[in-house]
Amino acid sequence: MTRPHMMPPEVPLARPIQMLDRPHRDLSAPGAMDRRATRWWRVLAFGPAVLVTGIVVSMIVDWFAMAGLYPLEYAIIGLITVTFFWIALSLSTTLVGISSLFLGHARQTTQTPLPSQKVALLVPVYNEVPADVFGNAAAMMLALAENGGAHDYALFILSDTQNAAAAEVEERAFFNLRSRLPVGTQVYYRRRAVNTDRKVGNLADWVERWGGGYQAMLVLDADSLMSGDAIVALTDALAADPAAGLIQSFPTIFGARTVFARVQQFSNRVYGAPLAEGLSRWTDQEGNYWGHNAIIRTRAFASCAGLPRMRSRRGEGELILSHDFVEAGLLRRAGWAVRFLPRVQGSYEEVPATLIDYILRDRRWCQGNLQHLSLLSSRGFHAMSRFHLVSGAMGYLMSPAWFTLLIIWALVGNGEQDNVVKYFSGFDAQVNWPSMTTGNSLMILAFMYAMLLAPKVLGAGVIHKAGLRLSDLGGFWQFLTSLSLEIVLSIAYAPVLMVQQTKAVVMKFLGQRQSWLPQNRRGGHYALATMAKFHWFETVLGFGALFGMSQGLVTLWLLPIALSLAGAIPLSALSGVDLSARRWSARHMGTPEGLNAPPIIRRAMVERRHAARALEASSHIAAE
Question: Which of 8, 195, 353, 375 is most buried (most C-beta within 10 Å)?
Fold first, then answer.
């Protein structure tokens, strides 16, 4: 258990639980200003998305109407409308971001010194690798010690680890961390005996017991890493804006070694900047919270963001899992601004190493994000906060929508006399179905891929505006190779992820809950039997589609999707291949965080190795 000298004296802070059936206003909130420029950015983001969606849907309606509109056609039109709008919004947001990057922004200056802030860096952990967590912590606190400045920082490792042996290792890592840092550095460790309400309860416990002693809290994940400059930049931004209740940074992925992790890292670094810039423009003071690498005004969070339990179908109180979106909505409801600053450099996180690890994490996120649909009727939420809740759910509902459209296309969309439905049932499914000629199929497929790939191509074309140089990415030819690899692999993995997310949505609506297991952040090599058991459904679908194509029953234009599904097991095995293990592949899909790592990442790697050696040495001493 936590010893008294591991934590400072308690400074309690009231954290009332919010009521969602009535509005709430924090009288201490200055109130966010309604900016005219923000309205124009929103028009530029949503206007083209709505317009293009309307044009595409009207063309689809005219096409279907040639053979008469029936319930199935109306359902298909509805699915197309929803899926296409979100794709179009992503593209228009990217274009808004590119415009913003080219316009630049005026450097803000303050005439008076910023007020000093007492900031707590909070690192919730749950059965993590201690050397990595405490190594990152050491790197951040050493960077802050060198940075200086007017603000006062303390770091808290908030453990929910339930295994006694693992907790004992964490304690040794904590004392090693203390000995590693300059005298006077404030670092603390607390472990809860019972991890009530998981991460939500972990942070709530700190707020209620120690939150009164700190004006702000910088919430991190166990795999988070931030440079001293980034931490100070967020603190300065909060101090300079009395209306801000939360300021979110844009985490960049680091530490990727495997094929699947590199795909995510390259995509985040190369394509992410325009999308993030566009999002920051049209969300403005109604931004969102992603649960980590964000600074929060402690008293605002305590007074306005206490999460209630949701009523489940079983009648019992259900924990809000994807708490971050809801907490951002509650802060904005109370009058506090929620901002997104993507240009703050030096904010990092890690990602799952393999396809299976990613899907396991995604299932938990799916369950939490779909809860948001039940919160849309909450009183007092800003329209943008409601949109974020819908967006979180749509991130997963898009997959069953796409899956349904592809199944319909496969069953009745070949345009020939024979099709799957007629083959097995004798029913002529081509009645009242528009002719799906080769030209129609090719046009639909090309248009779909063009819309999906456009943000990638546009993002790659403006990397210089996002502060990236070709030399940071391995040079021109290496960049083209990495870009091509990322696009090909993203296309290959997309159908597998679509099916897995569809399964997760179905499981959620059937009432099956996902267990809260520790993340396997380093990934692993899964046995063939494990991968076969995990991916059997996609594999059967893929080979079924290929069989239909061989019989002339399914359109050949679905071949890329069918091949991906049929190859789900080999693709899963490929996802865990360590690219950094071989010289010829080490630079593929590389980013500056790996090819030319900034000082904070290099320091974190050194501190991780030091922590690992110290823990190993202390374990030998304990064994003797």
Answer: 353
